[in-house]
TrEMBL record:
Domain AB hydrolase-1 residue range list: 33-253
Pfam families membership: Abhydrolase_6
Domain of life: Bacteria
Signal peptide: 1-23
Gene3D superfamilies referenced in this protein's UniProt entry, alphabetically: alpha/beta hydrolase
Name this protein carries in UniProt: Alpha/beta hydrolase
Originating organism: Massilia agri
Entry keyword set: Hydrolase, Signal
Keyword Signal: yes
GO molecular function: hydrolase activity
């Protein structure tokens, strides 16, 4: 009997040591931010944004968007999201907005979506149709002759001598010229692919874009933000299509607001 009482006392002391009366509260985990570039760019276009987010304690992944098809590209991004433990904020630029709208479907750890000068298509809409629905876009006249693909499709590039004014007018010319050299082409099929039911209908969405965007007219971007019931929309006067490169702090600030929102 004494042995049993001694064992009970020992277990009671151990339990008390394991569960202190004033245990510290659990620290909330910051969401991982996944940045998805669009056409005619690559993941380095996010460098300024990533630098700010990392300095503020966020884990950041710059996804390599294949730019081949909306659903195929969305699956690539979805696979990255599934590999992350904990909440995720998905951020898309330009065509990347269509990709995150599809990628987030059915993924419970996606907390919110941030559209950076990006498409937020409704079911049945295409990027090409949305960009031409409102006046102000001049991308068509800036494109180079399509590059024929082995499968019968086409790749689109922006003419290098028009890249600065068309795509990145608010960046230094030398920087824009290097971006033109390293631009990633987009398949015509991706621009013509109709969206399926988008995740912005069920997830909190945020929008930021520039009034000087020549790829996707500001009127189109404003329309999509309003339709998606954007929780916060930031319009940067005069900013170009690569607003994340020319105004990284403003874009990072909105992403952090999306990450911190309850």
């Amino acid at each position: 009997m004494k042995a049993i009482k001694h064992l009970a006392l020992t277990l009671s002391i151990a339990a008390g040591a394991a569960l202190p009366a004033h245990a510290a509260p659990a620290v909330a985990v910051k969401p991982t931010v996944i940045l998805v570039h669009g056409a005619f760019a690559d993941a380095t276009s996010w460098n300024g944004v990533a630098t700010k987010l990392r300095a503020d304690g966020y884990s950041v992944i710059g996804a390599a968007n294949p730019l081949r098809s909306v659903q195929g590209d969305a699956q690539v991004v979805a696979n990255i999201v599934k590999s992350v433990q904990g909440p995720v904020v998905l951020v898309g630029h330009s065509y990347g907005g269509a990709v995150i709208s599809a990628a987030a479907q059915g993924l419970p750890n996606v907390k919110s979506l941030v559209y950076v000068a990006a498409f937020a298509p409704e079911q049945g809409e295409t990027a090409l149709e949305l960009s031409g629905r409102f006046p102000g876009g001049t991308l068509g006249s800036a494109l180079a002759a399509p590059v024929a693909l082995a499968d019968g499709g086409k790749d689109f590039y922006i003419q290098q001598d028009k890249f600065h004014q068309q795509f990145a007018a608010d960046l230094p010319k030398a920087q824009a010229e290097l971006m033109a050299v390293s631009q990633r082409p987009i398949a015509e099929a991706a621009l013509l692919e109709a969206a399926r039911s988008p995740a912005w209908k069920t997830l909190p969405s945020y929008f930021v874009y520039g009034s000087g965007d020549k790829n996707i007219p500001a009127a189109a971007l404003g329309f999509m933000a309003e339709r998606a019931k954007s929780r916060k929309t930031v319009v940067i006067p005069g900013a170009s299509h690569v607003v994340m490169t020319s105004h990284p702090n403003a874009v990072a600030r909105l992403i952090e607001q999306a990450a911190e929102a309850k």
